[in-house]
Amino acid sequence: MLLLAAAIWGFGFVAQRLGMESLEPFAFNGLRFVIGALSLLPLIWYLQRRGRLKGVKDSGFLPRALLGSSVCGGILFIAASFQQVGLLYTTAANAGFITGLYIVLVPVLGLLLKHSTGSNTWIGCAVAAVGLYFLSVGENFSVTYGDGLQLIGALFWAMHILAVDHFTSRVAPVVLACGQFLVCALASFLVSLVLETTTMAGVQQAWAALAYAGLVSVGVAYTLQVLAQKHAHPAHAAIILSLETVFAAIGGILFLGESLSGRALFGCALMLLGMLISQLPLRYLVKSRHEKAA
Questions:
Q1: How far apart are CA 247 and CA 198, in angstroms?
Q2: Residue from 213, 278, 245 nearest 7 by CA
Q3: Stated pTM of the model
């Protein structure tokens, strides 16, 4: 289930690129997050009926849900905006790998919150940084505009994960997810009204991309993640989900006709290696090697 979720999210970059052939970035984000929020309502109803929504009947649930949704949704809006606009200027493969750096950035930012960070994180950061150089920095030491936007977005994706981690102990995760999607959609629509012109014809032309990006990427993949992580070790789950970046590259090549140079492929490989190293504690690697030898 985790591998399927990673594949869905990776191919979601293709849908986001295709959707902007008919819609502008903020309109596309607004619509896909509305669809995503609506797709979670059946799950919320089901969990409520089964009595599995934590703290719903508490008197302070609504204020906590509103605060968590506002904070997480605001950060999500910034991250998704950088990602979506950046896709106008870079490939789905580049966007996927650079966005995936949030896996490395989360524990680094966690230092500000006094979270413990192992040596594997710093090694992973170094390897991923070298990979980012080969992927995004040209021979004249310049970074493309689109890749730069994706890198800023990765920072906000990392902040978003930390914010979600903070509020999920106070608000039922699926309620928090639905609320933040609605906040992100509202903010996207407001910006779109000011900066963009959206037509019904454009929405109709982008219906397939919107359905995938909203219903499948958000509704289906989120549900798969929630169900799978009940039976998976967090470190293993993070490693499997990081394969989203690989599927983004595969999707770009198969469906968008994109290509990666040898230099870019080498950078992608290093970035993926860095992400994996950062998520797998060195003590686990040593233990596994000793167990295999025994």
A1: 30
A2: 245
A3: 0.85
3-state secondary structure 51-78: CCCCCCCCCCHHHHHHHHHHHHHHHHHH
Q: How far apart are CA 192 and CA 211, in angstroms?
A: 19
Q: Which residue has the tokens 């982008």?
A: 206
pLDDT in tens, 246-257: 899 889 999 999
Where does the chain have alpha helices with state H? 2-19, 25-49, 61-86, 92-99, 102-110, 119-136, 145-167, 173-195, 200-205, 207-210, 221-228, 234-241, 244-255, 262-279, 282-293
Tokens of 95: 């966007």
Residue at token pair 């870019």: 264
Q: Which residues, in sequence order, are CB contacts of 172 under 8 Å at separation 6+? A: 47, 53, 54, 55, 56
Q: Which of these, 86, 130, 62, lies nearest to 248 by C-alpha position?
A: 86
Give dist(CA 245, CA 250) in Å, integer: 9
Choose among 182, 181, 216, 226: nearest CA to 53. Answer: 226
The structure tokens listed for 199 are 């037509």
Q: Are 136 and 94 in contact (CB under 8 A)?
A: yes
Any residues with CB less than 8 A from the CB of 38 and at least 6 apart, and which? none
For residue 56, the number of C-alpha atoms closer than 13 Å in the C-beta half-sphere is: 15
Over residues 197-232, the pLDDT tens digits come to 999 999 999 999 999 999 999 888 877 887 776 676
pLDDT band at 287 (very low <50, low <70, confident <90, very high): low
Rounded to whole angstroms, how far apart are CA atoms 58 and 75?
Answer: 26
CB 128 within 8 A of CB 271: yes
Residue 84 identity (one-letter amino acid): Q
Identify any residues that bridge with 137 across adjacent strands, giving them in sequence order. Answer: 143
